[in-house]
Each structure stands twice: as structure tokens, then as C-alpha cells.
Amino acid sequence: MTSRSTAPSWAAALAGLTAAAVAVGVGQLAAGVIGGDSSPVVAVGGAAVDLSPSWLKNWAIATFGENDKTVLIGGIFVVIALLAAGFGVLARIRVGYGRLALLVFGVVGAWAAATRPDAGMLDVLPSLLAAWAGAATLSRIFRRLEPVEVAEPIRETAESHPAPLEQPPVMLAGDRLRTIDRRSLFTGVATGAGVAVVTGAAGVWLGGRNDVAAERAQVAAALPKPAKPLPPLPAGVDFKIPNLAPFVTPNHDFYRVDTALALPNVDPNTWSLKIHGMVERPIELSFAELLKRPIVEADLTLTCVSNPVGGPYVGNARWLGVAMAGVLREAGIKAGADMLLSTSADGWTAGTPVEVVMDGRDALFAFAMNGEPLPVAHGFPVRQVVPGLYGYVSATKWVVDVNVTRFDQETAYWTDRGWDAKGPIKTQSRIDTPRNKTKPGRNVIAGVAWAQTKGIAKVEVKVDDGPWQEARLAEVPGPDTWRQWTIDVDLTSGLHTLSCRATDATGETQTNRGAPPEPNGATGYHRVLIETT
Ligand SMILES: Nc1nc2c(c(=O)[nH]1)N[C@H]1C(S)=C(S)[C@@H](COP(=O)(O)O)O[C@H]1N2
Ligand SMILES: [Mo]
User: Fold this and answer.
1) pTM of the prediction?
2) Which residues, if any, are the signal sequence (predicted)?
3) Where among 353, 386, 417 does a domain terminate?
């Protein structure tokens, strides 16, 4: 005998959607209770990020920029909703099939959560509980989909007469049988939606307990002073031209690029940094121990390898940290080691050349940015910053572990996905203003250029096919920051193409050969098309 439901598809789909909503809510609640970042949706999203091919990831970064995570989470919800509606329709054949589909989905979530690099044993629970709650909801709502008037008679008929009789149930499948009690269905759906909202909100609220705002405030209250404070920035670092990137990027405007769907909340009181691998003496430093070391202050500009020519993924800050070289010297790097494989609290990795970190540049385990503890999004409590290297090979946020090793033995997150193992920053320049429209006549053109560790010696600007004209350069505190530039030009009315190019202090001018960001950084001159009216 079959329990095929006669409920219309829309009602079955609605039941599936309600079940999924309850599942997501209950999963979020369980994740909030357990703590950490074990929400099933976030876990599935994280796994999707790690498993998706690099072309897809690059496309997402290029298309959605810093909104890529919001788009991904939104996409996951859409997929869940479509699947859930499908599971509901499947449950018409047999409610058990729908329940099974939900359970399989829960196992996928549990697998995603368990295989996250920072997973704990408990992290499978939210997904499993979510699946159970979803399955239970599906059954309950399907009970409300039974045809009310004739349900009892069919059962009695089937039970009291095991063999098909003059009046087999199928004969009853007329109009009356298709009648569902809509009021009962909608009450069930509303109850499910209520449960979903309450559990989901409670989960989000409980999850908020993990945030480290209070710990950040403690660090802020006792921020150590640098051993040799830098002089204040020269007055001439910033032309203060409207729409030109300010010399110091405020923390809240600083670009953010990482794979973390839920920001790691790392408590500095339990944080530690392990230095191990090819070293004479492995070290483990607590946050307090790190801050007792000589503190270095450095102005340096971070750049993302994914930044397209003219793009926004570059920012400059004054950092406070501890020299990586000093810590590594204390550990004693063994001969033959050429790579520092750093790992973040959420399991992301970067491989940094040893020689780069040890050559005297200001490579830091940084804990403050522009006078305040690192924002959580930028690596609180400790991250690496290395002048002259793209972030993906150097700037590990929430860093907890440095394995001293060899490039021929280890690979890192992005190098496993096709990007170059070593990522020195390429000399680049960008036009910030104007970007599209301006008035004919005298115009201020301005932008930034960078060649970290070398310094910018010259920026030139060209209007259409005219001659290259040298721009005026702002002052800089050193070679590790970007440098503002500006030039006044006369523009006739109509369309114009502005181009710029930088020459670094070694005398090398950036190449005009176009290259995409992958595998080791975009090249080509930045050009903007301007309409003067
Ligand atoms: N833990 C962790 N650290 C990370 C990343 C990441 O995905 N996870 N991304 C890196 C990349 S690609 C860049 S460009 C810089 C960006 O640093 P920001 O977000 O502070 O600007 O962080 C680096 N550090
Ligand atoms: Mo990056």
C-alpha cells in the first residue's frame, strides 16, 4: 500500500519550504548554543568557497567585490529554498522520501562543518539537529495535508478489508479527496515560520556572545608604545584633493579580502602563536608575551593580488607590531628552510619566502592599525604584514601558527588554487580623479602609485595620444607606502582618455603589457575615459 499524498504540489512545496526554514532556524540556534562558527549555512558556504574552482572564485571577487560573501550566502538560501520545495513535492510520493532528502541534506551540512579547518567535534550537531527538526516539521505539515472528509473512511476500508473490494480506495479519488484543509495547512506553515524566526534570531543573538568587542577594548586600553616611535607623517603626504584616496586609509574604509564567511572571533587571552618546523627551538608566544617584545611602528601599504588595474584592493595604514625576523631568529631557522607557512585561526594558509621576511624590511606580527587594535575583519588580535608582498602570500589575519618549512614540501591556500607561490607586488599607478565626467578647461588629475620596498620616483600622465607629462609627487614617510600624485591639465570638451604610469626608485617603469590578476598580479597602464561637458 502506498502513502502517496493527494495534496497539490504547491501545498507540498510550501511544506518543504517550511521544513527548511525550521531546519535553518534550529541549526542557527544550535550553533549559537555550541558557540564558534558552526552555523550549517556558514559551514556549507565555507565549503563551497573552498571547493569552488578558482575561475569561479576569481569571477565572484571581480564581479561582486567585497559583496561576494553576501551574494554567496544569498545564493545558498536560494538553493536551499529550491531544494526544500523539491523535497516537499517528493514527499507527496511518500513523506519518508522527503524526510530522507532532508536528512541527506543535513549529513552534507554536517560533513561541511566537520571538514572546516577550525572544526570541533560538536560542529556536526547543528546540521544534524537541523535535519531532524526539518524532517519532523515536514511530517507534521503533511499530516495537515490529508484530505479531511474522506481520510477516515479510507483507512477503515483498507484495514477492515485487506483485499481490494467493490470500493477500492482509488475509486474514492474524486474531487472530495483532493480537498485539503487550507486553514490547517496555513496554521502549520505559520507555526513553522514562527519557530524558524524565533530559533534563528535566538541563534544569532547567542552567537553574538562570542564576539570579542570587550577583549578589543581591553587591548585598546593598554596598547603598548613603539620602541622607536615614528615621527608624525610629513605634512605633504596628502594633497587632500576630493575623490583622491587619502594617504592614510581609515580602518573602516580599508579593503577587506578573505575567505572567512563568519569572522573568526579570537580571544587574545587564549590566543597563542606557535613557531615550529625547521627551527632550533620551537616557540609558543601568548599575546602578553608578544606585546612585551620591542614594538615596531611602520607605515605600509597592503595590496591584493586580485586587484585589477585601477581597482580598489589597496590600502595604507600605520601598523604596530613585533618584527617577525626577531621572533624567527630566536627560534633559530635551520639551513635549507625557505618558506614560512602561516595558518590562521580559521585554517587559511600563506607561504612567505624566509629571505624576504629576514632581509630587514618591516615584516610584522601586527596587532594595531592606525592607532587602534586590529579590527576583527582585519585580523584581531594578530596578523602578519610584509611590505612588498601581495596579501595572499604574506598577510595572514588571525595568525596562530608559523611552520618553518620549504616551498618544495608545502603549498598554501591560494597556491593550491593556481596562483604563484611567491607574490612580489608589481609597480602600479591609479587615477582616482576624475573618473568619468568633468568640465572643459583646467582640470586636476590625481591618483596614487605604489612600489613597496622600492618607492615611487616618478608618475607620468598622458591625455589621449599626447606626450607623457610628469606629475607632482606628494611626500612619503618611506618606500613602503603608496604615493599620491597630481597634475593640472587642460581638457577640450569632448571625450578624452587619461593614462598614467609609474616609475619606481630602481628606475623601472611599470609595463604597459596587459595581464589579468591571476596568477601573480595585474599589469598594464590605468586608463580612464573622461567626458568633458
Ligand atoms: N586568515 C586569512 N588571512 C588573509 C586572507 C584570508 O583569506 N584569510 N586573505 C589575504 C589576502 S588575499 C589579502 S589581500 C589580505 C587582505 O587584508 P585586509 O582584508 O586586512 O585588507 O589578507 C590576507 N590574509
Ligand atoms: Mo589578496
Assistant:
1) 0.84
2) 1-23
3) 417
